[in-house]
Automatic annotation (TrEMBL):
<feature type="domain" description="G-protein coupled receptors family 1 profile">
    <location>
        <begin position="1"/>
        <end position="135"/>
    </location>
</feature>
<dbReference type="GO" id="GO:0005886">
    <property type="term" value="C:plasma membrane"/>
</dbReference>
<feature type="transmembrane region" description="Helical">
    <location>
        <begin position="85"/>
        <end position="106"/>
    </location>
</feature>
<keyword id="KW-0716">Sensory transduction</keyword>
<feature type="transmembrane region" description="Helical">
    <location>
        <begin position="118"/>
        <end position="135"/>
    </location>
</feature>
<dbReference type="Pfam" id="PF13853">
    <property type="entry name" value="7tm_4"/>
</dbReference>
<protein>
    <submittedName>
        <fullName>Olfactory receptor</fullName>
    </submittedName>
</protein>
<dbReference type="InterPro" id="IPR017452">
    <property type="entry name" value="GPCR_Rhodpsn_7TM"/>
</dbReference>
<keyword id="KW-0807">Transducer</keyword>
<feature type="transmembrane region" description="Helical">
    <location>
        <begin position="23"/>
        <end position="45"/>
    </location>
</feature>
<dbReference type="GO" id="GO:0007186">
    <property type="term" value="P:G protein-coupled receptor signaling pathway"/>
</dbReference>
<keyword id="KW-0675">Receptor</keyword>
<keyword id="KW-1133">Transmembrane helix</keyword>
<keyword id="KW-0812">Transmembrane</keyword>
<keyword id="KW-1003">Cell membrane</keyword>
<dbReference type="GO" id="GO:0004984">
    <property type="term" value="F:olfactory receptor activity"/>
</dbReference>
<keyword id="KW-0472">Membrane</keyword>
């Protein structure tokens, strides 16, 4: 959003990105994340559990908790999958959509040096987006069940995607 407004409306940037609008975007993002997490927790709280109540996972996930239920969890797992896909693909779709608009706007810039400057600004952000989405995407597609307190590639990839971009943020920018 920031790159879109900076490149497509540079003269209006300060009027587009006001503190109030930024606060609304942040509040909306946090509200969406909280709402997306309330549903799996409320579904897990309603499930009947038999035998073991020990979660076989090294981090806080809903899937291993659902496996402990002694009832059919297919509907709950489908909702959890839909939530995960929404949380990952929603922002990614928005990022791709805004970058398509940015690329079209940048290709209309006459000066090659200004064009390169605009692409360079976007390239650093795209690098961080890839550093986040590539491990997360690969862990979803290559997910293996964890046993005991082991952490598989899913956890390693998700931990890396959460910690690596913030660590590299100040170096890349």
């Amino acid at each position: 959003y920031d790159r879109l407004s900076a490149i497509c409306g540079p003269r209006r940037y300060s009027t587009i990105n006001t503190n109030r609008r930024r606060l609304l975007i942040i509040a909306g993002s946090w509200s969406l994340v909280i709402l997306l997490e309330i549903f799996p927790v409320s579904f897990a709280a309603r499930l009947p559990y038999c035998s073991s109540r020990e979660v076989q996972s090294c981090c806080c996930e809903h899937g291993p908790v659902y496996k402990l239920a002694c009832t059919d969890i297919s509907g709950t797992r489908q909702l959890a999958t839909a939530k995960t896909l929404t949380a990952l693909l929603g922002p990614l779709t928005f990022i791709i959509f805004t970058y398509v608009i940015v690329v079209v706007a940048v290709t209309r810039i006459a000066s090659i040096s200004q064009r390169w400057k605009a692409f360079h600004t976007c390239l650093t952000h795209l690098l961080l987006v890839l550093l986040y989405y590539m491990p997360v995407s690969s862990s979803i597609y290559t997910r293996e069940p964890t046993t005991g307190s082991e952490c598989g590639s899913f956890h390693s990839n998700s931990d890396g995607s959460v910690t690596l971009p913030p660590m590299l943020n100040h170096i890349i920018y």
